[in-house]
Design goal:
The chain is mostly helical and 227 residues long. The protein folds into 2 domains: 65 residues, Arc Repressor Mutant, subunit A, CATH 1.10.10.10; 135 residues, GntR ligand-binding domain-like (Four Helix Bundle (Hemerythrin (Met), subunit A)). 67% of the residues lie in helices and 3% in strands. It has 9 helices and 3 strands; from the N terminus they run αβααββαααααα. A 3-stranded antiparallel sheet has the order 1-3-2. α1 crosses α7. It starts with 20 loop residues before the first helix and ends with a helix.
Length: 227
């Protein structure tokens, strides 16, 4: 007598994965440090230690080490053969190279954003620019770098070019401490005009004027450091 086939075993319900606390701590530390470097909160050549970072952010050495490893790969930090960690001190040649990348990519992203630059976006950019001007008047170097990058990033998001944006954010990351040093070197109180020219070109739908305004804005200041 042939027995009927046995029913398939009832699958066990999947056990929920426990979140890795080190992974969450690593990601939080990585993002915080990345913004600090990009916004110029750390000076060029500023030394850091894994132990100090772990203590500052209340994490263990493992997530601190992983976050630093990622930031070294992105050029935000340098690490010597002895393990010394610091923010980069860029040579004039390196500054010129990074400025050239900005001059190539950022006008292109602005141009691609132009057809999608609705009035609400322009109003948002004008509000960010007002904060940027306030930082200039207060001689707030970190505030100036932060709002300057926020202005550009808000515009470039409309270009819908994620690969280009990722590339230019890596450039901003490497330039952050240097941009802070540049602002402190110039010590200007006059409000830059380039953002106003960008806003005017956006309102007028002037693509050549927009490209020129962006290119001038992203390269003119850096030339002070290479001259």
């Amino acid at each position: 007598m042939t027995l009927p086939p046995s029913p398939p075993p009832t699958p066990r319900p999947a056990q929920p994965r426990l979140a890795d606390p080190n992974a969450a701590a690593h990601e939080r530390l990585y993002r915080s440090l990345r913004l600090q470097v990009m916004h110029g909160e750390l000076a060029p050549g500023q030394a850091l230690t894994l132990r100090g970072l772990a203590r500052q952010f209340g994490v263990s050495m493992t997530p601190a080490r992983e976050a630093v490893r990622r930031l070294v790969a992105e050029g935000a930090f340098t690490m010597s053969s002895s393990g010394r960690i610091s923010t980069p001190e860029l040579t004039p040649e390196r500054i010129e190279e990074l400025a050239s990348i900005r001059a190539l990519l950022e006008p292109e992203m602005a141009s691609r954003a132009l057809p999608r630059a609705h009035f609400a976006l322009i109003d948002r950019l004008a509000a960010i620019n007002a904060l940027n001007q306030e930082a200039v008047m207060n001689q707030d170097a970190v505030g100036y770098v932060r709002t300057n990058l926020e202005f550009h990033r808000t515009l470039y998001l409309r270009a819908q070019t994620p690969a280009m944006l990722a590339m230019i954010e890596t450039v901003w990351l490497q330039l952050g401490p240097t941009m802070r040093a540049l602002y402190q070197k110039i010590r200007r109180r006059e409000v830059p005009q380039h953002h106003r020219l960008i806003l005017a070109a956006l309102r007028a739908g002037d693509e050549p004027g927009l490209r020129l305004a962006v290119r001038t804005d992203v390269t003119q200041g850096l030339r002070h450091l290479t001259s």
